[in-house]
Amino acid sequence: PGSERETRRFSIFLTIFGVTRLAYLLSQPRGWIRQGFEYEELANTFLSTGKYLYFYKWNPSTAMPTAIEPPGLVFILIFIKKYFYLHIFWMLATLHFAIALASFWLFLKVCDSFLPFQTTRMAGLLYILDINLWSPLRWVNETLYSVFFITLLLYLALRLIKDPSIKTGIALGISFGAALYFRATIEAYILFF
């Protein structure tokens, strides 16, 4: 009965989350907000020249430093622009929706691992209502990916503490490495674990 109740609770939360986020994504008047610099410019320049660099439009003769721009999102944009050029909005919307849904599921699992049922339910409700977690769905930036990787790292760290295994340790290490592709400062977050 406990696992059936947990499954039903998670299903209800995921459905509410999915419906609200999907409605938000599809109800926007212009659909997608693009970042006309940095990530998109890096992707465009890479597709046209094969080089990981970009120029500001107001200073086209000087290449800007790219060491501060983690390549994860740029690589995703390059892939989508190259193979799904006519469907960029739908591909990014689908990807961002799936990542947001996975982040929320991981958040619930993390909360459920050490909080009482009522507190987990309240945390899930607050997560659904938090407008700060809605807007990254429409922006082409690393925030959504950072939220996903932080919740994934928390989830895996808690699993490793609860049931130490090499498989979970390797998954944690790979996830940490992948997170660095989206936010270079993610290693500073490890201090809070």
Concise account of the structure shown:
The chain is mainly alpha-helical and 193 residues long. The protein is built from eight helices and two strands; from the N terminus they run H-H-E-E-H-H-H-H-H-H.
Helix content: 55-70%
Q: How many distinct helices?
A: 8
Biggest pleated sheet:
2 strands, antiparallel
Alpha-beta content class = mainly alpha
Strand order of the largest sheet: 1-2
Per DSSP, what share of the residues sits in E-state strands of 2 or more residues?
under 5%
- Described by the principal axes of the CA atoms, the overall outline is globular
| Arithmetic mean of pLDDT | 83
**C-alpha Rg (nearest Å):** 19 Å
Tally of strands:
2
Our measurement of the CA-to-CA distance between the termini, rounded to an integer number of angstroms, reads 33 Å
What are the secondary-structure elements, in order, as H or E?
HHEEHHHHHH
- The unreliable regions are none
Secondary-structure blueprint:
Blueprint: H1 2-27, H2 39-49, E1 54-56, E2 59-64, H3 71-83, H4 88-114, H5 117-129, H6 143-162, H7 166-180, H8 186-189
Helix pairs in contact: 1-4, 2-3, 4-5, 4-6, 6-7
Can you walk through the features of this model?
The protein has a two-stranded antiparallel sheet with strand order 1-2. It contains eight helices and two strands. The mean pLDDT is 83. Helices cover 67% and strands 5% of the residues. With 193 residues, it is mainly α. Helix 2 crosses helix 3, helix 4 packs antiparallel against helix 5 and helix 6 runs antiparallel to helix 7. The longest helix is centred in the middle third of the chain and has 27 residues.
